[in-house]
Structures are given as C-alpha cells and as structure tokens.
Design a protein that fits this description.
The chain is an alpha/beta fold. The protein folds into three domains: 142 residues, no CATH class; 131 residues, Ribonuclease H-like superfamily/Ribonuclease H (Nucleotidyltransferase, domain 5, 2-Layer Sandwich), CATH 3.30.420; 131 residues. Helices cover 46% and strands 18% of the residues. The chain has 18 helices and ten strands. The strands form two sheets. Strands 1, 2, 3, 4 and 5 form a five-stranded mixed sheet that branches. A five-stranded mixed sheet has the order 8-7-6-9-10, with helices on both faces. α9 runs antiparallel to α14. The radius of gyration is 31 Å and the shape is elongated.
Length: 436
C-alpha cells in the first residue's frame, strides 16, 4: 500500500458508479440511510425512430438500492432526462440499462453485493434486505433471479462430473405434503482431491422414478462420463442407476452400511431388554446404560467401558446382544482397516457369515444378512474406490439443515431448491474470480 498511487477522492469512483454509467453530483447522509444523487453519463439525444436530434423535455427520478457501505443502506437517486423528437414526436428517456434492469429496484452493483452476501458470506435474505434498504420480498426475488441467471443456469456447471452421490433429504417437518427431496451431489472433487463436494441438483420427492427421470434428462455424453454412483440402501436409487447408467459402478456408502448394522444392534438390545425385564430401557438397566458404549469401536473403548460391556455380556440372557455386537464390530473394523484389500476380505467374510448358518433367534442378524447378500457387490465396491462415499453428501445435508434453520423454515420448495444450490452448489470460486 505504501507504493500505491493515490488520486483525489472521487465519490463516483469510490461507489463504483462509473461501472453503471452514472456520475455522482450530490449526497445526503441521513441517520439510517445514505442517498447519492446521480446523473446519466451518456446524453442519448438522438431519436431511435427517425435519427433526428431530440429536445430536452423534463427530468424524472429513479431510485435504486445500491451496495451498502458499512451498516448504512445506500440509495441512488438517478436523475433521468427525457427527450422529445421534434420531427416525429416520439419521446424517450436516457438509457439506464447499465445501472439496472428495466423496472428493477436494485442496481447491478447492489445485486452483485447481495449475491456475494448469500453465496460467500452465507447471510440470510433478511440481512441482505436490511443492507440494501428494501423489503424482504424485493431482495429475495431479485437475488434468486440473479443467482439463477448467473450461476444456476450456467450450462458448464455439469461439466467434468465422473462420480455422483444420491441421497434423500427432509426439507420440512410438517404433516401436510411430501417432506422428502432427492439430493444429487458431485463427488468428483473429493475423488480427485481437488476440492469439496458440491450440490448438483435437488428433486422433489424420493423414488426410483424421480432419480430415473433426472438421469434420463441429462445428455448422453454426460451420462457416459459418470463412472461411480454412491448411494444408501434404498433399492430405488440402485434400480434407476442400473437402468440409466449401466456402465457406472454403484457403491453402497459405508456410513449407511454401518448404520444398518447399528440399527440391528439397537433392535436386538431393545428386544432382549423387553424379554428379560418386561419393560423398556430404564436408567438402572445394564443394557440401557450400555446403549452408547455398544456403538463405540472396540479399539476405542476405555477401561471403564470395557468393564461395563464385560458385565453386560457376562449375563447368559444377553448372548444374542453379544453376537450382534460382534458382527457390528467386524463391519466397523473392515472399514477402518488401513489396507483396503484386507478390509475387503474382512467384509466378504462378514457377509458370508451373516447369510449362512445364523440361528433363527438372531432375527436382526438374519435381516442384516438378507440386505448384505442382495447388495454385496455394492458394499464391496467401496474398497476398490475408497474415495467414493456419501460422507460429503451427509455433510451437505447438514449445511442445508443449517440453511433452513437460519431462514426459520421454508414454505416454497422452488425457493428452497434455489437457496440450497446457492448455498452448497460450489459457486464461491466463480464469484471470487469476478472480484476486481
């Protein structure tokens, strides 16, 4: 900064009005708002119909919300001159399209600031509206339209995708209407270690047809480039993938496999608890006290937790819980093994163990075995592609939960999809590249 060249202060340059084809001619600083009086640089005196020179008629004003400076909203009071052609009688105004769209209430610089605030700074629409000094509906409509035009509708947004993740997401917690949507994530940056995952699209509903129709709407060249699809245990996603992406490899996410085993362990514990005590878990019951310890990896147990589990497994009536816990721990150990080849062999051994020779009393293990038998190829495919998992998908789901909490909920699914794409669509580098 010491070697920078300084010039005389200029309000037009400081407020970046020259980019809008305006020049500042006055200012008024109020308690809660700053107003900058502007004029249009180009005179625009020539008639667009006959080409004759027009005579000045009068002046009208146009108010535009501009990017704020500090916590004070800034408004541009643009003086627009009107002309009348003495030859053909046509009247027109000076062209202000560089400053804002026709009938818009926010300048182009204001829209850029608002888009940065939503995408980069993760501000709420209420905070953006307060910064611009406009109503919530004005800010929301303008920002979503600008984001859709500049970012969401970019035809190059889907380029270079070779791995995707698909999962369900709850977008509202109400009894009325469908509360589920299908989220599709680009996992290519994670796989290639070039950056974070990004949200590709969000679809209303959760079914095979929803995902299948989305895939059918993509260009064939794009479909040919998708090599891997990570998913949970929902068979609808698997069927749609097989039908529309026959050359892609379905991968069942480790998180969901471990959760299937964990859910089976919980159901087994609850069943044994009810059978042995005649009631649901209470604070003094050994099985209930160990409910969280049972989900801890065996290599991470403390001495106190080990003693607690040994006491639980010492009871003969808890043998079914111990057997289910052993299967759960073997699945966790397979995924945690540093050598993926050995982990794959361990997982194969677990699958073989739970699909053959399981006693009828172990209903939870038998149920898990049916699922693992049906999806064995998808489960084992992860070990050949360890960078393909739905962990980033769950992380983006968490960011969308935070978005919904910041906005105090959404009623309009179209707005929610647009805000979700702006929040997690990976657009920050696109906007940073526009900084000058």
């Amino acid at each position: 900064m010491l070697n920078a060249t300084f010039v005389r202060p200029d309000l037009t340059t400081f407020c970046r009005l020259d980019e809008l084809g305006l020049v500042a001619v006055g200012q008024h600083l109020g308690a809660n708002q700053a107003v900058i009086e502007c004029r249009v640089l180009e005179s625009d005196r020539w008639c667009r119909t006959c080409g004759a020179e027009g005579a000045p008629k009068d002046t009208v004003t146009r108010r535009l919300a501009h990017e704020p400076f500090g916590h004070r909203p800034t408004t541009l009071l643009v003086r627009v001159r009107r002309y009348r052609c003495e030859h053909c009688g046509r009247a027109w105004r000076q062209d202000t399209s560089k400053a804002a769209e026709c009938r818009a209430k926010i300048s182009r610089r204001g829209l850029t600031w608002a888009l940065f605030a939503i995408v980069v700074d993760h501000l709420t629409v209420s905070r953006v509206a307060a910064g611009l000094g406009v109503s919530w509906h004005t800010a929301n409509t303008a920002v979503l339209a600008e984001g859709k035009r500049v970012l969401i509708d970019d035809p190059h947004r889907f380029e270079g995708v070779s791995a995707i993740g698909v999962d369900e997401h709850v977008w509202r917690h109400t009894r009325k209407g469908d509360k589920f949507v299908t989220v599709i994530i680009d996992l290519t940056p994670i796989r290639e270690k070039t950056g974070p995952a990004r949200l590709l699209d969000m679809l209303e509903g959760r079914s095979k047809s929803v995902f299948k129709q989305w895939l059918a709407g993509r260009p064939q060249a794009w479909l040919d480039g998708v090599e891997v699809v990570a998913m949970d245990g929902f068979t609808g996603f698997k069927t749609a993938t097989v039908e529309e992406l026959p050359d892609a490899v379905p991968v069942m996410d480790p998180f969901h496999v471990v959760r299937l085993a964990g859910n089976g362990l919980d159901r087994c514990r609850q069943r044994v608890q009810q059978a042995t005590t005649g009631h649901r878990g209470r604070s003094g019951d050994p099985l209930y006290k160990a409910r969280r310890t049972l989900h801890t990896g065996a290599d991470l147990l403390t001495d106190k937790q080990t003693i607690r589990l040994n006491a639980v497994f010492a009871a003969e009536e808890h043998v079914e819980v111990e057997a289910t816990w052993g299967i759960y721990q073997r699945i966790v150990a397979a995924y945690r093994h540093p050598d993926k080849k050995t982990g794959k062999e361990t997982m194969q051994a677990v699958i073989d163990a739970v699909i053959t020779g399981v006693p009828a009393a172990l209903v939870e293990i038998r149920r898990l075995g049916r699922t693992l038998k049906q999806r064995a190829a998808d489960v084992l495919a992860f070990f050949d592609r360890p960078s393909t998992r739905n962990g980033p998908t769950e992380a983006i789901n968490g960011r969308l939960e935070h978005l919904r909490g910041s906005a105090l909920g959404f009623r309009n699914l179209t707005h929610y999809i647009a805000r979700s794409l702006l929040e997690s669509g990976g657009f920050r580098p696109c906007l940073h590249s526009q900084l000058r």
